Amino acid sequence: MELFILSFGALFSIMNPLGTVPVFVGLTQENSRKEKGLIAFWTSLNVFVILLISFFFGKYLLVFFGISINSLKIAGGLIIASSGFALLTGKFAEHKGMKRKKVEDDIKKRSEITLTPLAIPMLAGPGTISLLITYNQTYTDALEIFIFLGSMLTTTVLIYIILKSAFLIVKKLGASGINALSRIIGFVVISIGVEYVVSAVINLIQINFNS
Q: Would you tell me how many other CB atoms lie within 10 Å of the CB of residue 207?
């Protein structure tokens, strides 16, 4: 249970579906209620597939590029921490490369938004992918892998619920309420990023000391 809470909390905080709510509302305001539900569903499904690919096959990228797990932890930690700072400063969308005008102009040219920009990079960005690769290299027991699958599935279901309820959330919380929650989550995300950097540095020091 402790590992589930740890992995779920980290995934949910870094992906921050609440931060995606304003973008989702802006892109789907002209769609019908049924279409909004379908967009929320396919976005969540795309996210789950990306999480699975990152978790099970991301390690091969490390082998191909010759990247050590400690290097990945430091790089991923920095990316995660920068995402947290973006949440704290209210610039999460800009940090993800999502300028509102650019998105709205681009969306007029294509009907499919469930993969990009919603799934990538708004939800499953570089920080999420690097986190899952790190988890795959750190936790290799069958039970641990099963727990991570459960946390990924739970996070995906919550993403679907949040996106499906996006218009209600905006109505109830308003922009200020969403920003306040995002900034609280941002502090947690920064802490996660710092923790990854610190643990990797400690590991490198121990390796050098023992050698």
A: 11
pLDDT band at 46 (very low <50, low <70, confident <90, very high): very high
DSSP-based three-state secondary structure for 153: helix
CB 39 within 8 A of CB 31: yes
Under 8 Å CB-to-CB from 190, ≥6 apart: which residues? 80, 81, 84, 85, 88
Host H or E run for residue 89: none
Place of tokens 């708004």: 122
pLDDT at 107: 46
Contact 19, 87 (CB under 8 A): yes
125: left (phi over 0), alpha (psi -120 to 50) or beta: beta
What is residue 143's three-state secondary structure? Answer: helix
CB 195 within 8 A of CB 13: no
Residue-level pLDDT at 109: 40
Cα gap 206→211, rounded to integer Å: 8
